[in-house]
Design a protein that fits this description.
mainly alpha, 2 strands, 71% helix, elongated
Length: 108
């Protein structure tokens, strides 16, 4: 598999999470620090979809030989795995009604 396909499939997966998290925020009315628990997973899914779509487009501009080089395919797979792990963690924490990293309550 070439790097552009790895990133394209990753984009597709994150894009599917966008409506899923919107559905969650519509039907799950729990709040964390006054914000829907599904707000952060939604924002991450959307931003990661855009992020990996950008990688897929850039990689697609490379020649087929370049897209299939081991180092770029490994980089694509590693970055995709990191993004998936990140979003899974954030979504699981949201489902539990708990904050994930970088989420702090601010006074005011």
């Amino acid at each position: 598999m070439s790097a552009d396909l790895v990133w394209a499939w990753t984009t597709f997966g994150f894009a599917l999470m966008v409506p899923a998290t919107l559905w969650g925020s519509h039907y799950d009315l729990r709040l964390l620090f006054g914000v829907s628990v599904w707000s952060k997973p939604f924002k991450f899914a959307l931003s990661l979809a855009i992020h990996f779509a950008t990688f897929a487009v850039i990689a697609h501009c490379l020649s087929e030989d370049e897209r299939q080089r081991t180092w770029i395919v490994v980089t694509a797979a590693a970055s995709a795995a990191a993004g998936v792990c990140e979003l899974v963690y954030i979504a699981l924490q949201a489902a539990r009604g708990r904050h994930s990293h970088f989420q702090q309550q601010h006074a005011g």
